[in-house]
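Q: I have 405 residues here and want to know how they pack in 3D. Can you give me a structure?
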Amino acid sequence: MDSQKKTDQKKPGKISQLKGENQDLKAEKKSAKVKIVKLEEEIDLKERYAESQTRFETIFYQSKLGNKIIAPDLKIMQINEVFRAMLGYREKEIIGTTITAFAHPDFIHHWHELQENLWTRQIPSFQIETCLIKKDGAVLWCQVTSIIFRDNGITLGYTIIEDISERKALEAELKKLHEDQETMMHMVAHDLKSPLNNIQSLRGLLQKNVEKLVAGSEKKEQSLTLLQMISDTCDKAQAIIRDLLFVGDFNSKTTFRKTDLTTLIESQRSVLGLEAEKKGVILRFHYPSTPVYAHLNKDKFLRLLENLLSNAIKFTPGGGCVTLSLKNKGTKVLLQVSDTGIGIPAKLQSSIFDKFTMANRKGTAGETTTGLGLYIVKRIVELYQGTIWVESQENQGTSFFIELQ
C-alpha cells in the first residue's frame, strides 16, 4: 500500500512535466515554421535578385550603346564591349581607371559636373555632351546619360554613352559653310561698291551731256529716261550691298551704352522723316517728356528705326500715317511702329523676318525691297536680347512691337 501511494503521488508531477514538454514542442514547431517562412522568403528574394541581375547583365552587355558603371570617385567598375570598342582599349586597361583619364583636356570639367550633380546634389539623372580621346588619339564626341542606383549599400552611376561624332562633324561643317557664305557675301558686296560708284559717276557725266541737247527733242527725252533707269538700278544695288555689308558686320564686337532714346530719336527726326515727306505720308512721334533709357549701340538702333520706318512708309499710300511710339514698361522699354497701310497677309506673317524672305512685295508706289530689312531688325533686337512681334490685318495697317531691356 505504501508503494502504491508513492506511485500515485508521483503521477501529477509527471503529467506537469509532460505538459511542459508538449508546450516546448509546440513553441519549437511554431519557431520552425517561422524559420521556414523566412527561409522561403529569403530564397524567393535571392531568386528575384538573381533574375533581376540576369536581366540587368543582358541589357548592359547586349546594348548597342556604350555602357559603363562608375563609382562616386568616377572610377570605372564595369563596361560592355561596345564602350570598350568605342575607346579602342582592352578591358583591363579601362576597368579601375577614372573616366577623366580618357576625357579630352578641354572637357574634363564635364565629368566633375556630372559627379557633383549625381553624388553631391543627388539628382537622379544627368546628361552631358562631351568629348573623349580614343587610344589612337582620335576624338570621340558622345552624349552621356547617367543615372544613380544603389548596389550593396553603395551609390553607383549607370552611364550610357552614345557616339554623336557624325552629328558633331555635320554641325561643324554646317557652321563653317554658313560662316564661309557670310564671308563670301560680305566680300562680294564690298567689291561691288566700287564699280557701282563708277557707273553712277559716268551716269552723271552722260546726263550733263544729254542736258545740252535741244530741249524737248525725242532723243533727249529717251536718253534722260534711260539714264534715270540706270540711276534707279544703281540705287537698288547700293541698297542691297549696304544691307549685305551690315549683315556681315554682325560678327564684329558691339559696344552697348546707356542711351536716352527720346533724345536720340528727336535728334534724327528730320532725317527719319525725309522718306515720308517725299511720299506724302504723315510721320508722327509719340514719347514721354521724361527720358527713356536702354542699353544699346546707337548706330545699330538707328538702323533698326530706319528699317522699320522705311518698311512702314513703303506699304502706306500717300496721305496715310506712320506713328513711332516709345514708352517705359516696368523695367523694360516698348517701341512701337504702326501704319495705316495695306497690312500683311496672315500667310506671310510667319516669314517676314527671314533672310531674303519670300514675303517680299513691292510698296504702294512700286518701291522694291532687298529682303533683308526686317531680317536686320530682328538680328539687332536679338543682339539686345529683346523681343519683337507683329500684329497686322490686310487693308487695316500693321504694328511692329519691340521690347528692350
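Q: Anything worth noting?
A: Residues 175 and 181 are 10 Å apart (CA to CA). The mean pLDDT is 82.
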